[in-house]
Amino acid sequence: MNVDDFSDAALVLVGHGSTLNADSSAPTYQHGDELRRRGMFAQVIEAFWKLEPGIAGVLRGVFAPRVFIVPLFISEGYFTEQVIPRELGLTSNDQIDFPRVQQRGEQTLYYCGPVGTHDSMTEVILSRAREIVEKFPFPRAPKPKDTALFIAGHGTSNNENSRKAIERQVEIIRQRGLYAEVHPVFMEEEPRIGDCYRMASVRHIVMVPFFISDGLHSFEDIPEMLGEPKRLVQERLKSGQPTWRNPTERQSKLVWYTPSIGNEPHIAEVILERVRQMALTEPETTAVGRKSGV
Known about the structure:
Elements: E1 9-15, H1 26-38, E2 43-48, E3 66-71, H2 78-88, E4 101-104, E5 107-111, H3 121-135, E6 147-153, H4 164-176, E7 181-186, H5 196-199, E8 204-209, H6 216-225, H7 230-238, E9 248-250, E10 253-257, H8 267-279
Parallel strand pairs: 1-2, 1-3, 3-5, 6-7, 6-8, 8-10
Antiparallel strand pairs: 4-5, 9-10
């Protein structure tokens, strides 16, 4: 089997989406457009949890014999292990242990791992960190060896997997010895994002938000947690300015803050790697009941 021949296959990209943020769907469409441009798949379709087109009905418009479903999410957690499989009819009762390759009539459905846990996301993070310092070198670009790298995530007590993807990337980058130090920080768990100032033993900090899309968290919450006044953040947001000025000095530290990782062009390659991994997997079951609305 040619693992790069997907002319008989459809690719379904599943994003979270948000009714509060018009840009939340942008990375999903960006990578969908790029993969459509390459002409590798018979179809490339986007679907969302919080926006239309919704996840539950997306497979009605897919007619290819093979269907690869890739979640554009950071971690293996509640959404990727329960919500999306349930909405697609791959499982019932939110069970986590279900066949990732299933036969449905004449179609074979392949449920791939999320992009955020793929090994090559390390390069996406490092690229973000490198580019922000190169773009804003004032007063001069610090060397990584003189810089503390922080990877920021949401974190939640509802799902222990929420932080695992970030902690894994921290450990990988630490082992490379590129930066003076590398730390995870979270919005809703310890250590908190605002703790970066006491955690960093060097003057220079680069903060990379490990989120798929730029939105409420990356544009508003994190800058405020880093010390920007809420009023100033809102004024900049309304006038279309960046809500964080690179670099900004806070608590005797000089801080560079990057955009979220979701629109990094390399993620299109991560999606393809997820598809290739699943293409070699045989179906574990012969039939799946079609969920109402799927």
